[in-house]
Amino acid sequence: MTVKDFIPTAYKNLIEKGSYIWSSPSNIALVKYWGKKEHQIPENPSISFTLDSCKTTTTLRFSKKENNNEFLFDVFLDGEKKDDFKPKIETFFKRIEAYLPFLKGYYFKIETSNTFPHSSGIASSASGMSALASCLMSLERSLSGVEVTDEYFTQKASFLSRLGSGSACRSLEGDLVVWGKHDEIDGSSDLFGVKYPFEVHQNFKNYNDTILLVDKGEKQVSSTVGHNLMHNHPFAQERFKQAHSNLSSLIDVFKTGDLKSFIKIVESEALTLHAMMMTSMPYFILMKPNTLEIINKIWVFRQKTSSNVCFTLDAGANVHVLYPEAETEMVNEFINNELVAYCQNGHYICDRIGFGAKQL
Ligand code: PMV
After folding, report:
1. Does ligand 1 have an atom closer than 6 angstroms to the CB of 32?
2. 314 lines ligand 1 (CB under 6 A)
3. pTM
4. Cα separation, 125 vs 131, whole angstroms
5. Is 165 near ligand 1, meaning CB less than 6 Å away?
6. 170 lines ligand 1 (CB under 6 A)
7. What is the pLDDT of residues 301-360, one digit of tens each?
8. What is the domain partition of the chain in residue ranges?
9. What architecture (CATH level 2) is domain 3-196?
10. Which atom of ligand 1 is nearest to the CA of 27?
């Protein structure tokens, strides 16, 4: 697939008004995307677990408008009008207009709600952009008048999501999604996420992710700024090579169910992501003291027990605690006894891997 494959031919149907509802989850990267080229093309391939309960539900209502000369829309979060969300969506619409030429022909009312609290420090961009992109694809499907296969629908929804927020393109499917060209992964692409195509051992089915909310505040440095600091970063090229090789190693890990190797790769990826931030110019730190306390507690717990619990981080202070389904009881007890104390107001979210966007 190339970019041109996502430019539609003339639509055959006329639709005056209607609505679509989609829900789409967040995702957590195991091999991290950090650094991008123009048009949200990643510098290296990444792979993520799709989440299940952390998701956004979006209703897109649309009605045909008189002229075609501007984008016209309103955004609501939990029923409340959110004009401060508009610039981000306007930018998204501008980026995708060439691929969805109907955008200026409609007024859109975008109503969205998240299952996780807005101020939890969990970014809603992946779930939000992928839910909106899916709604827009439903409209395109109705307008097109020719058969749109599910495969094309999902690929284009992922392609559009990427233009909204890079990692959002990994939220359309599950339970493991690869984004970015990798020589050993058939079908992988810089343009959209694809379902991981190889064998995955039973050990990784229903994997748990308990998200410990260490700091619910706004990030001091946005991921857009962070990605840009990878340009001219002294360690960038080595980091991009490392991501390719970590993803290669994971292929065997997923096949054999080797949890010890999984832990090494995933924790190293998390710390490398933050090492890139700390060695950027200007440098910055998103981890908090409690992030490190939790990491140390996890390491001590692993030493004392046979547990395969491990952690990963996204671009913030919160800790994603990952563990196999078979260890649910043991690790939940550990979290309650030893880790909850480090969460802001004792808050955490129990999630597990899931299967992507759904039309409601
Ligand atoms: O999708 P963005 O631009 O918010 O970047 C996300 C980057 C990380 O969450 C840190 C890593 C990843 O691959 O999701």
Report:
1. yes
2. yes
3. 0.96
4. 10
5. yes
6. no
7. 999 999 999 999 999 999 999 999 999 999 999 999 999 999 999 999 999 999 999 999
8. 3-196, 203-352
9. 2-Layer Sandwich (3.30)
10. 14
